[in-house]
User: Fold this.
Amino acid sequence: MPKKQTRAAQLARQVQAVTGLPYAECLKMCEPSEGSWGRLARALRTVGLTEAADRLLAADAVTDEASTWFYSGGAVEQLFYYTNHARVNRTYDACSEAAEAALNRAGFEKYSYAPEAEAFHAAFLALSKAGRLPDARPLARAALGVFADDPTWCSDVIRTRGRDPFTYSTAAGLSGPDTPTAVAARKAARAMARAAAVRFSGDEEWYEAAGIMVEVIWHAGEAAGLPPLDGRPNCRDHLHVFMEDEIPQR
Assistant:
C-alpha cells in the first residue's frame, strides 16, 4: 500500500470499514468525476475568478463525500434488505451519520439547500462575467449546467443564503457589450437577483421565484448559444402552465 493514499483511497477505506463492502467496489464509488460544479469551477478559473472556483470545488468535494456515504448505505440496503435487516439498519445509520459529519465539518447542515445555493452564487458570478464579455458562451454554458430542470427546486435554492452572506445586488449595475450573448447573460444574472429577493412565505412566492428561475434558465441558454430551455421539459411545462408560454421582456 502506498505511504500517501489519495483522498479517494482514504475515503474508500473508511466506507469499507463501515459497510463491509469489497474495497474495489468502495473505491469505485469514491473515484472523483467532474460534474456540472467542477465544469463551472474550471470555467470560472479560465476568466480569473479563482476564489469563486476554489470555493465551489470545496463545496463540490464535501457534497460528493456525503453523497458517497448515502450511496454506500443504499448499496448495503439493496444487497441485504431481505437477508440481514439488522445489518442494513446499522450500516445505513452509520453512513448517514458519516454524511452528516462531512457536511457539518464544512459548515453545511445535513438537509439544506446551502451547498446548491453556493453553486448558484458561482453561476451568478459566471453570468455576470459573461455579461461583460463580447462572447462568453462556454462560460454561460457552464453556469447553465448547475440549474436543475425543476423550477420549484431552483426556487428554494436561489432563496437560500448558503454558509455566508451573499449579495446579488451587483446585478443592478451590470453593463457590457450589446452582443446577443452578453445581453442575455446580463438578463439571466439580473433575473437571479430578482428570484433571490422573493421571500419565503407561501406557495405564491414559491411559484413566483420558480417562474423567475425559468427566465434565468431561458436567458442563460441564450447566452450559451443554445435553443431556449433546450432539454428541459419540466421548465417548459412550468412556462406553459404557470406563465402562459411567455418570458417577460425586461
About this structure: The CA atoms of residues 29 and 68 lie 6 Å apart. The chain is about 65% helix and 0% strand. The mean pLDDT is 95.
